[in-house]
Amino acid sequence: MSIVLGSPSSVQTNTDTGFALKTATLAKDQQELEGQMAIKLIQTADLSNVPAPSGSSGSQVNIKV
Fold first, then answer.
1. If you ran DSSP here, which 8-state letter would residue 11 be given?
2. What integer pLDDT is reported at residue 39 of this predicted model?
3. Is 0.70 topped by the overall pTM?
4. Which element (helix H / strand E) includes 46?
């Protein structure tokens, strides 16, 4: 590699790739954050006050076509 004084730029940069990488990184971080929030929500769910299913629940299903 040689550097010449007065040349416009001796190193080519692709800004589209840089923006794509930044966008992908931000999307990945957002997905990880949402996943952590979902796990916390599931772990803190209180299942002690959920009513027990009744014996006839779901035995009859009305379907209209």
1. S
2. 94
3. no
4. none
Mean pLDDT for 50-56 is: 73
C-alpha span between 27 and 39 (Å, rounded):
18
Q: Percent helix, strand, coil in the chain (nearest 5)?
A: 45, 0, 55
* Cβ(12)–Cβ(1) below 8 Å: no
Per-residue pLDDT reduced to its tens digit, 26-48: 999 999 999 999 999 999 988 78
CA 30: distance to chain centroid?
Answer: 5
- The token pair that represents 45 in the structure block: 């769910």
Residue 15 CA to residue 42 CA, distance in Å, equals 41
Q: Which two tokens stand for residue 50?
A: 């959920």
